[in-house]
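Email to the structure team, subject: Probable RNA 2'-phosphotransferase model.

Hi all, the expression group asked for a predicted structure before they design truncation constructs. Nothing fancy, just the tokens so they can compare against earlier work. One-line instruction: predict Probable RNA 2'-phosphotransferase, return tokens.
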Amino acid sequence: MEDIRFCPEHGYYRGERCDRCNHKGELILDKVKVEKLGRFISGILRHFPDRFGLEMDENGWVDFEKLSKVVSRKYRWANKWLIKAIVYSDKKGRYELSDGKIRARYGHSVDVKLNDYEEAENDVLYYGTSEEEAHRLLEIGIKPVNQKFVHLSTTIDKGIEVALLRTDEPIILMVDAKKARTAGIKFLKANNHIVLSEEIPPEFIKIIEIEKEE
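Reply from the structure team: attached below.
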């Protein structure tokens, strides 16, 4: 986790210096508060809006001002500007702000449809996992686990990055999204690195070899 700072020219960023101009901006949130606030916001927007009386529409949007009030009650030092700092500095594109509303772009366990997402046009997608899990998925397919959608990576490198969170020996499954799409499976673009989908049957999945560094 990194601190959030503000660059006068390029806005909020994470780390010591702005990666666009190398300016060391004003400290906005230290990394401890970034983690606390980020976890709370993502928890509400992905898993438990009802717990705090927030209404979420079928596309995952909640009212930004109402969320800000909930956050301020939880953390007295927090306000809507710090929420925006979390959103705009997030390198993984977890959140979206528009027309007075906010949502998580992916990771939902609550029932959302995300009908306003752009459909992904990738011919192939990737899923990083462990060796043991990979062989099981080749038999039963890839299904959402504790989430509404399957989360796929747009590149092999991103698939490896995800898999390394769970195993030191990543295995990459390739999904033939082009064929799956013709079979009626819908793919939604969450951001440039993540695509969401329904369950992927095993006939559209295969293991690919990863070149290992010597």
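The helical segments are 31-46, 64-74, 80-89, 131-140, 156-163, 177-182. The domain at 4-104 is CATH 1.10.10.970 (Arc Repressor Mutant, subunit A). Ping us if the truncation boundaries need rechecking.
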